[in-house]
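thoughts on these tokens:
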Amino acid sequence: MAKIKINTLIKGAIEEVWNKYTNPTHIVHWNFASPDWHCPLAENNLTVGGSYKTRMEAKDGSMGFNFEGIYIDVIPNKAFTYKLADERKVQVLFNPNKTTTELVILFDPDMENPIELQRKGWQTILNHFKEYVENTP
């Protein structure tokens, strides 16, 4: 099945965008799709063989899940790829421009949810990240 692609253009230098995307101190502030959810936990060992783990859950405690992967490729301030527990791959690309950074995410779809639902969910989180970067010093 073809990869799903999402992207956004963020006002900010590549170093800032990379840091806010990969640093657990920042991840907990943007890694959720709607205001009634949050990300109470983020861990990130951004090295080949290192792990990525976040916890997303409803603020009322009614639902939640862990999102985990193992890095298979890391090029600082450029790109990284990780493999999820179900063997799907996610590639994140950082493309610098003069005053902006394009962030592109390519991911293997899961077999449980409609493609458009997956695209919309991931894009909503990415849009939330863009808003966080552009509005946080």
